[in-house]
Records
---
Amino acid sequence: MSTTRTENPVILGLSNQNGQLRGSVKPAGAPGGGGGGPPQLNQMKGKVNGSSQPAPPTNAVIKPGDDWKKNLKLPPKDMRIKTSDVTATKGNEFEDYCLKRELLMGIFEMGWEKPSPIQEESIPIALSGRDILARAKNGTGKSGAYLIPLLERIDLKKSCLQALVIVPTRELALQVSQICIQVSKHMGGVKVMATTGGTNLRDDIMRLDETVHVVIATPGRILDLIKKGVAKVNQVQMIVLDEADKLLSQDFVVMMEEMLGFLPKHRQILLYSATFPLSVQKFMNAHLQKPYEINLMEELTLKGVTQYYAYVTERQKVHCLNTLFSRLQINQSIIFCNSSQRVELLAKKISQLGYSCFYIHAKMRQEHRNRVFHDFRNGLCRNLVCTDLFTRGIDIQAVNVVINFDFPKLGETYLHRIGRSGRFGHLGLAINLITYDDRFNLKGIEEQLGTEIKPIPGIIDKSLYVAEYHSESGEEAKQ
């Protein structure tokens, strides 16, 4: 990582409520650089807004016989080393799936060069129309695994709603809709809409009065729109449940069952998640027709994420965090607490230490959550303090350190938290602050996940989590 200092951003309307706190100016360079925005995030710039319009296609007219790939606006090649979580493929290419050229253009312009293992397994089966139950690790390309076949099967001659993607959180809905818009931008008019709770219902009603092909939604909002007769789902051919274990938990399963009652009898259902409890099995038996099962979870944790614990008292935690900030080479970090109140208190402490940080939790106003998510994703701040709201599917490539300020009680929660680092086969660090009361929990989660959480060393090898110490010319990380 470059150690040149980046200016702290000017953030309007700073307050204790909007999730954006700014410490006194502190060098953002080596080693921790807990100050302003991280450098080298240009590839991540772009609006996170489900209703934004796709970028206009390139002006170059592609004629028969042209090498159409020459006209693509490809992002810089990612030279960071990748683990076998995403490289252990059969060697397929995206062109092997007979996809529309316009869809391939969007795929390559996203920087997706070759299918990951979950994409190799999913795409041909999903294109055939068969139900899928897919289990794969966090950060291995699940969104692409269902969005590519979904977009391929959209019939632009029809002006009706044809596909639903259901996700558990508003932030994930915005993220998935942005990916969908980008991938489909050359397809000549695929209309994508994100709809979530906490936003203006009237806007959604007006939008659905026009042509919409794909809706990406949280469960409560889409069910409300269906029951009001606004979202007409009688011609929906595909429904995706992303983070299916959460969607089929007690929080949402009744809504999911009710929603399926409105859909056509012959529809395709795709379930994707990293963990599948018994609730998923029950739902699958009731609603899926001979599903194709994919399981790429021989082990649960990502190969590229190194896990450590630091044994501390509750009073030592903030001091320990300050030490980590000063010693680690952080590009971006996510720090987890177990309650909304502790999130705000810790964010205030971090800002008092002189580091800029954002915070986010479910009790904040929606516009503040959107702003924090958008700005953190675009690199305006290095550190984000949050609750488990932020553990589901959120893909921010620049995050190389995750810190559990409060250790979680469930192995499933731990797995999703540390999966925010080491995205798409890259390397990352997970550091857990463990108190006396957490010691049995730590042992239990290690056994449950079949993983090792090591005592933190005095000096952490930068080659374990800093991208600049790796390139594809070196040996592949952690086979």
Note: The first strand starts at residue 20 and ends at 21.
---
Amino acid sequence: MNRLGRRGAFWSAASVLGLSLWSSGAPSVLYPLYAVKWDLPPVAVTTVFATYQLALVVVLPLFGNLSDLFGRRRIMLAGIALMAASAIVFAFAPNVAFLYVGRVLQGAGAGLAMGAATASLIENNTSRNPRSASTVATVATATGLTFALLLSGLFAEHLPRPLLWSYIVLLVLAVTAGAAVWATPDDRPLMTKRWRPQVPFVPTGFRTGFVISTLSVSLAYCVGAIFLSLGAHMIDQFTHNENTALVGSLLATSSACIGVTGLFLPRFHARALIWAGTALTLVSLALMAAASGFGSLPLFLGWCVVGGIAYALAFTGGLGLINDLSPTHHRGATLSFLYLVAYTLQAATAIGVGAVATVVSLSTAVGAAAIVLAVLCEAVAVLLLTSRRTATPLTNLAAS
């Protein structure tokens, strides 16, 4: 069989990242429909959403180093298979328990695939700019999420069986991505070590950089948790608009802004991107609170646009910094640890916001989340300032 070369492996890995976010975002526009169908409170919706992240929290510490041991290709294929299985579970779910099962499969699949795919992007990057790999990762994930949100909304509004078609498309895409990865070269290491569960760790020498990178990515993910788990509910409740095509288009605008912004980021230093992402995240949080308080669709659109740009800056900056710092032989494990922390915080955000929304009100939950995430922004800024003043290796490497 003819194998694809490095360029083919690079773009196949990008497709796996896009598939992972398509899988994650496919139910987001549909959560209000599930809530009506099965009479679910907000906390039930957000715990279904967070089950994905909780599955990742289990998978990443145990299996995050598998691609370092057995090759990126094999582990991506295993992750794709789990995401394909999740599509089948969601497509024919008879009750809410099946949504939890589907999210476990999605989380486990993404946990295996995303670290391996990101490492494959870095290692098969043929561009002269080493940061183009992190940019492509941002654009690929944004593209997958954009089309998942947009098409889910359109299908639900205009086709019969609104809870089916998004997952049929996901299944087809999983098969296509699997075929592409299957055609890439075998990248198993020459010397294969015996697998054992790996306690999360950060190699010495760049721990401050790892914390900054991880918090920057986590900031993007935590805002994304509110957006993806309750964004459709917020638009429905605060603006009284139940058109799923419009809701999907609004949510897709944010992820589209992530992808478009990502195209312009390779030339910028990672620290500059993190600074800009932190600042714009504060602006997006203010817009989120204002949109909820005034029930304004234009303000929701502003939140989607600014939040999408902020996500791209924070995510690309954090990922670019850790790519600069992590040693090759620990890259898969290091990236998996980054995703572990980011997804843990994302799950906590989703569950916390859902619990407050159920016990008190959705508007109170949104306001409280804005305050907590603003504090996280401040923490990132303090660490950036501290690392510069102490002239750690982070400063020298990130500026090179």
Note: Confidence is low (pLDDT under 50) at residues 391-400.
---
Amino acid sequence: MSDVIVQSQRQNDSFFFIASLWSFGLVLIVLVGRATGFMCSQCHSSLNLREIVFVIQSQSNSFHVRQAERRREDLLYQAHSLTEKLPVVSLLHRLSDNEGDWSILPLLPYLSQSFGKNSSWIVFLEEETNVKMTTLAQVLAKFDKNKEWFLGKPLRDEESTIIHHYAFAENPSVFKYPDFAAAWALSIPLVVRIRCVALYIWDNGKGPHLTAVPELCTEPESSPQARHCATTLRKEPPLCGEPVHKEDIFVAVKTCRKFHSERVPVIKKTWEKDALYLEYYSDHADPAIPTINLGVPNTERGHCGKTFAILQRFLSNAVPNTKWLLVVDDDTLISLPRLQVLLSCYDPSEPVCLGERYGYGLSQGGYSYITGGGGMVFSREAVVRLLNSGCKCYSNDAPDDMVLGMCLNALGLPVTHSPLFHQARPEDYARDFLAHQVPISFHKHWNIDPVAVFNKWLKDDLRAKTSDELSKSAKTEL
């Protein structure tokens, strides 16, 4: 599961608030006074905003903290305009010291114990999820709060994929899971049951299936189609300043001799030209590319020895002194201009470790890590702390991304997640999930034309279009 990039537009609050009131006939509530609940003809009962617990899926990186705080302020501002009984709005990263709580399951016992008696709904949303409070309250009031409900915008896999550990291989579309960006909700009875019997919601098909809620949307907030929506998204990712300059990023590509003629040419045809500083690291020095042999033998799986040699070289005088290090595989497709835009939001003086976050054994006190195929981004400060800690590979063929995750966990350094990095191919993700993204990377050349995939999904200017727009424009290019 994942999380994702954010920006709130407070100047639009009044517009959305008034529009919501008119759209759903709630002007009377404002005229009468500060409302304490919401009623509708199809609702099971009135819903008091105090019965809703909002959990913003925040992260401890300073940029994400600021974004989550803005989202929290916006929710409370809207609620205050409606009622004196305000909802609880919590930031996920502050609920406990367990970095694994982003996966939600380890957090359920706390939510059950803290809110099981006085609340009806736990609503999860991402930092960039805009919420129309009146609409959301009316939507939730349609469902019997005393029953088990799992609400969201459903996504489906078209084929079995590593993203979900190849689950439901015979019929992957039978499993529906929520698009986190649209917000999703659990009724308190379901939260309590999961906690008590330690079961996942699916429960081998016996648990409540995800109920589709059309009002939970990922439409752009300015779109005409968003009028009925309780949640919306920004059309573009935030630009926090000028894009990071090319000279501030050093790119390390991991390769090996057998892929010099197969994978490296793809990089040279696609994204290599956007890098000012780039080196290829291999088990064989080939001056035609050129590649650099770091003295680490090639391994069939895991590349921990090679990755740690790259980290050491990054801090040496052998390469330019840059603020950021990007480590990718030789079958990673990436948009460096989009990465430059994204990195404008992060402070390189902080220990930033950025990419697509995965987790290992999170419910049993495990650790988070950046999955390597989508690209791993480190600030110089993060690399300094990693190497100064003395953390090392237990073998050259150990999984480098997981070993780095263990190191970061031991140091108390967070892994920062961006849903714009992808450790698999575009077809391995639900179409609706990619439709509201401006992706930064994909991984693997298996059964695809990687140059065509790059041109379709990743080739454009710094500011980027939505994936839907990219898909339409790519049909002409391809």
Note: The longest helix spans residues 62-80.
